[in-house]
């Protein structure tokens, strides 16, 4: 009888997460560049017309698929772990952006309140669901037939 070392292949999930994040970077930047060229630049940080959302969905699908394919087992679990990794990376990225804004305000010597913008629970939950569902579907699509 062999001992089962677990259902999640952490190495495969790390590779899938890294590949998905690279794909997200490429797709979102190329997509925003094309959208700006086609429709004009009305402010790079404003509405993106869904480019970042679609890029995120495709990237997390790919990351979950790749992790599950590399692991060769329990594709759903690998996809969920990749989706959770996307959530964690997004939270760290958001924190780093907001911390930089606060730091630059304090470094300028103004000591006034900094407006970090509204926090929408709907956007937060829908973004997390997008990552988890996308990773799950990507993992399930990896099944060999």
Question: Any overview of this molecule?
Answer:
The protein is an all-alpha fold and 145 residues long. It has one domain (10-141). Helix content is 72%, strand content 0%. The protein has 4 helices and no strands. It has helices at residues 10-39, 51-71, 75-107, 121-141. Helix 1 (10-39) packs across helix 3 and helix 3 (75-107) packs antiparallel against helix 4 (121-141). The longest helix has 33 residues, at 75-107. The radius of gyration is 18 Å and the shape is globular. The mean pLDDT is 84.
Number of domains: 1
Describe the global form.
globular
Instruction: Report the major sheet.
Output: none
- Cα separation of the termini: 28 Å
Mean pLDDT, rounded to whole units?
84
Quaternary form: single chain
Strand content: under 5%
Helix/strand layout:
Elements: H1 10-39, H2 51-71, H3 75-107, H4 121-141
